[in-house]
Automatic annotation (TrEMBL):
One of its GO terms (molecular function) is metal ion binding. It is an enzyme of class 3 (hydrolase). It comes from Cercocebus atys (Sooty mangabey). Pfam families: Hydrolase. InterPro entries: HAD-like_sf, HAD_sf, PGP-like_dom2. This is Pseudouridine-5'-phosphatase. Its cofactor is Mg(2+). It catalyses: psi-UMP + H2O = pseudouridine + phosphate. Its EC number is 3.1.3.96. It comes from the Eukaryota. Belongs to the HAD-like hydrolase superfamily. CbbY/CbbZ/Gph/YieH family.
């Protein structure tokens, strides 16, 4: 049985995820969580990370940590504050964004990160992030539910003026669950997976 033919639409607007796509931050989560795990002599492997990413209760259950979900979140946030400012741009990200700007292609960023998190992650890249026409954050009042819920993408598309048809938006993502949600919005999507994923 062959796959159904793909139907692409002309693209007029681009939306980017941030972590693991524009900023190389995924490994920083691993560093922070591994420091916590080291106290318990546990390894925070890619297999564990790919299953749970940032779900604190699942991490505690799988690794059998003797701490509450709140303690894990608090401790990981402390460690992430230390490492986020060293985040670097992903290879090719700056060149691509400058190319889009040069050719007047509307683009923006939609991330589940909140304002404080973005401030830390982008502290060394303020000029780069100033190129985006809009940045929608997970703590934006118009976002009722964070990614992978499609609300953030739909709310974001409405910030373009005028609002484009959803099928003319192209979203760049790095997570499979977010890819599926994006397709459900009617937007087109390009997945740029982490090299550790199969």
């Amino acid at each position: 049985m062959t796959a159904p033919p793909l139907h692409y639409h002309p693209i007029t607007h681009l939306i980017f995820d941030m972590d693991g796509l524009l900023l190389d931050t995924e490994w920083l989560y691993s560093v922070a969580f591994q420091e916590i795990r080291d106290c318990y002599e546990k390894k925070y492997s890619w297999d564990v990370k790919s299953l749970v990413m940032e779900a604190a209760q699942i991490i505690i259950d799988i690794l059998q940590l003797l701490m509450s979900k709140e303690e894990l979140v608090e401790e990981s946030q402390t460690k992430l504050k230390e490492v986020f400012p060293i985040a670097v741009l992903m290879s090719g990200a700056e060149k691509f964004i400058i190319h889009l700007q040069k050719h007047s292609i509307p683009f923006a960023m939609a991330t589940s990160s909140g304002s404080a998190s973005l401030e830390m992650k982008a502290s060394q890249h303020k000029e780069f992030f100033s190129l985006f026409s809009h940045i929608m954050l997970g703590d934006d009042p118009k976002v009722q539910h964070s990614k992978p819920d499609p609300n953030i993408l739909l709310a974001y598309a409405k910030r373009f003026s005028p609002c484009p048809p959803m099928e003319k938006c192209l979203v760049f993502e790095d997570a499979l669950n977010e890819l599926e949600v994006t397709l459900a919005t009617g937007m087109q999507v390009v997945m740029v997976p982490d090299r550790n994923l199969s």
